[in-house]
Amino acid sequence: xxxVPKGSSVKELSTLTIPYMGxxxxxxxxxxxxxxxVNGDPFLGYTVLWNDMLxxxxxxxxxxxxxxxxxxxxxxxxxxxxxxxxxxAFRNLKEMSLSIQDQNGNTVREIGxxxxxxxxxTPYPFRKNIMSYRDYSYSFDSITWNSIDHNGDNxxxxxxxxxxxxxxxxxxxxxxxxxxxxxxxxxxxxxxDVKVEEQQDGxxxxxxxxxxxxxxxxxxxxxxxxSYKSLPDNAKEYITAEKPxxxxxxxxxxxxxxxxxxxxxxxxACRSVY
Length: 274
Ligand SMILES: [Ca+2]
Prior knowledge:
Layout: E1 48-50, E2 60-61, E3 66-67, E4 73-74, E5 84-87, E6 93-102, E7 107-112, E8 138-139, E9 158-168, E10 176-184, E11 190-198, E12 204-211, E13 217-224, E14 227-229, E15 237-240, E16 246-253, E17 258-264
Parallel strand pairs: 4-10
Antiparallel strand pairs: 1-5, 2-3, 5-8, 6-7, 6-9, 9-10, 11-12, 12-15, 13-14, 13-16, 16-17
């Protein structure tokens, strides 16, 4: 086949257009997986962490539609069993391995490379997600990480990173990493300075302060005279028509640690209300 005409007949030839698709550049330099919306501007937004308590990814604020990395955390004291991953593969992968790094980039826990899904124990070769088949991401709710290190011990509180290391299924391809910040926050919020004031309208306002380090204050639960009252997120007060004799307040942080306090008007016993 010849594409370049030559000779005296060139003028009589009609022009042909041949569609051609090619790739110029480094085949393994393109992103293997979609970047996390926690860090930037993804195409889809499925490269995120989840837990078994929320229907939305950890750190996602449905009011603003954005992520707050400060609120992403786990705690071994939480009733949640930890964080689990999802991601969108843009390309066919030879390997995807998950791990936890500390703030200095040291790997403190290997989570796995899905070799349990292959017959010969090699890393599972993920195929790219095909959006036209409504296949947007891979998600693994059975793979939870909840603060532990290589030895199964709880890591100290602090900033860590959930690391996705992927390698393209292509000769000589180098691993790429995507890191989602995640905290270990095992300290519950402290509820203090509970005050009960009678208002001019005859109702009572219960107020309290919350001291929280780590993932931040999520909100409180309150039981007044033994009955549960629901509160909006971030609330630090509750108004009741019923004169409070006893109030139990439980403050919750974003890692789902719970700190409790009991306020009582007289020398009544603060019995557990759970
Ligand atoms: Ca905390």
